[in-house]
Design brief:
By secondary structure, this protein is α+β, with helices and mostly antiparallel strands. 38% of the residues lie in helices and 20% in strands. The strands form 8 sheets. It has a 7-stranded mixed β-sheet with strand order 17-18-16-15-21-22-23, with helices on both faces. It has a 4-stranded mixed β-sheet with strand order 3-2-1-5. A two-stranded antiparallel ribbon has the order 4-7.
């Protein structure tokens, strides 16, 4: 049998087809834009995801030559937190308000005022942030009452694709937790939060564990996609939870690190651990009965790209990084604060800024380059430290992916700063691959998500920490931690200038 994973992201819908052993046979993506009709707004029409899914599914079937009758299941993933509002007949009421939309700060404040900030964190595992779904619902109620009056169903982006495939309203628990309308420990909708926000419980779809079957392809969807009617569609997971499955980070002690434009530190947990101040995201995992903690850095590899484009335009990354390997850990007393676009973890501060601290005439381009790599590593370590303080067990291995992970020097710096093994794996398709594995588990191809990852995901490279460098970075890290408190008032004074 074969399995398909569908990933509806902000920029494209990707379809991935794998065989029963987890080998990827075909991948296709259909790109589309998103709109910014006003400052801080970010919207997208759900029909773009469905159109992209149809095209991408047909493309992987054509590439692989697989008979649609041999597709054992479809798993779904996609961008988290986006609000999709439907009426009683399943019609889209307005463009989806996306995860990166920033219009809802007053609604976040209102949520904390109604429920209490500490209590809200204890129930949902998170503070109310502008990216989440709940404040978006309140915004529609306050600003578009005529649309709110017609609402009957709340979905997330990938779940609109599910609805078009199956005619069923459903959501997985990992993505559902990202609405901040769930009771994290109970893994179900919170009646207390819904009531406090005046959101009808009947608007919220049934919740499922990641591998569970949520519905089957309709005749209409089969005609649109080229798949066979009756093909089961599994719950799947939000993009970060599915990405973790795709790299095999499904057990405590194994952390997934995505080193892309932003940086994401994802740790599986056997219990519903909550960071008391809400500085980490705490969600359900797409692995049944598990949870995860997640820290997000807004400018990870994005910091290196900005640095290269600004100070060494036209130079390739390999050429830029090579001299930095000759600089000793700590860059001879130079620190870099990577808050170029504000920050989320551990400081949810949109006014935070980047900075080089400690510059002297002896510092060269190689020094500043190394300082950028080290500053990002220190910033990511903040998430590790928060996870440990939340009760998570020892971190024994970090599975790294993303463009920044291609640099051997950066991998070594990360291993030395974290003080644990850093590995790469054989899978590069991330969330779509994780969704396909979840579909395989739901269809009985694999006995569990953990077994699926054990069979399909292999370590391809390992970077071990060096004891001497670990000690050097341990001495520098507290100095890095002092930078944000020391500069906060300056950031506030600079404001939006």
């Amino acid at each position: 049998m074969y399995y398909i994973g569908i990933d509806s992201s902000t920029t494209a819908t990707k379809a991935l087809l794998m065989d029963s052993a987890g080998q990827v046979l075909a991948v296709a993506a259909s790109e589309y834009p998103f709109e910014t009709p006003r400052p801080l707004w970010s919207e997208q029409h759900p029909d773009l995801w469905w159109d992209g899914a149809q095209k991408s599914i047909r493309a992987v079937l054509e590439q692989s030559g697989v008979n649609p009758a041999e597709i054992g299941g479809v798993g779904l993933t996609g961008q988290m937190h986006g609000l999709v509002l439907l009426d009683a007949d399943g019609n889209v009421l307005r463009p989806s308000i996306l995860w990166n939309d920033q219009r809802t700060q007053s609604q976040c404040d209102e949520i904390h005022a109604r429920i209490g900030r500490e209590k809200f964190i204890q129930i949902t595992g998170n503070v109310a942030l502008t990216g989440f779904t709940a404040p978006k619902i309140l915004w529609v109620k306050e600003n578009e009452p005529e649309i709110y009056a017609k609402a009957a169903h709340v979905l997330l982006p990938k779940d609109y694709v599910r609805y078009k495939l199956t005619g069923v309203f459903a959501m997985d628990k990992a993505d559902g937790a990202g609405t901040v309308l769930m009771d994290l420990k109970a893994r179900d909708w919170s009646d207390e939060v819904l009531a406090a926000l005046d959101i009808p419980r009947e608007w919220m779809p049934p919740l499922y564990e990641g591998p569970q079957v949520t519905g089957h392809l309709t005749v209409e969807a089969a005609e649109a996609t080229g798949l066979q009617a009756g093909t089961p569609v599994m719950a799947g997971g939000g993009d970060q939870a599915a990405q973790a499955v795709g790299v095999g980070a499904v057990s405590e002690g194994i952390v997934a690190l995505t080193l892309g434009t932003s940086g994401v530190v994802f740790a599986t947990a056997n219990g519903a651990f909550v960071e008391p101040e809400g500085r980490l995201h705490a969600f359900c995992h797409s692995v049944p009965g598990k949870w995860h903690l997640m820290g997000v850095m807004l400018s990870a590899a994005g910091s290196l790209r900005w640095y290269r484009d600004t100070f060494a335009p036209g130079i390739g990354f390999d050429e830029l990084l090579a001299p930095a390997a000759e600089i000793s850990p700590g860059a001879d007393g130079l620190l870099f604060l990577p808050y170029l676009t504000g920050e989320r973890t551990p400081h949810p501060d949109p006014l935070a800024r980047g900075a080089f601290v400690g510059l002297t005439v002896r510092h060269s381009l190689a020094h500043t380059t190394r300082a950028v790599l080290e500053g990002v590593a220190f910033g990511l370590k903040d998430s590790f430290e928060l996870m440990k303080s939340s009760g998570l067990g020892e971190i024994t291995q970090v599975r790294v992916s993303g463009g920044g992970a291609k640099s051997p020097l950066w991998r070594q710096i990360l291993a030395d700063v974290f003080g644990c093994e850093l590995v790469t794996v054989n899978t590069t398709e991330g969330a779509a691959y994780g969704a396909a594995l979840l579909a395989g588990v739901g269809a009985g191809q694999f006995p569990s998500v953990e077994k699926a990852c054990e069979m399909a995901v292999q370590v391809t490279g390992s970077t071990l920490p060096d004891e001497k460098r670990v000690k050097a970075y341990a001495a520098m890290y507290p100095l890095y931690r002092d930078l944000y408190p020391a500069l906060t008032s300056t950031f506030q004074s600079l404001g939006n200038s």
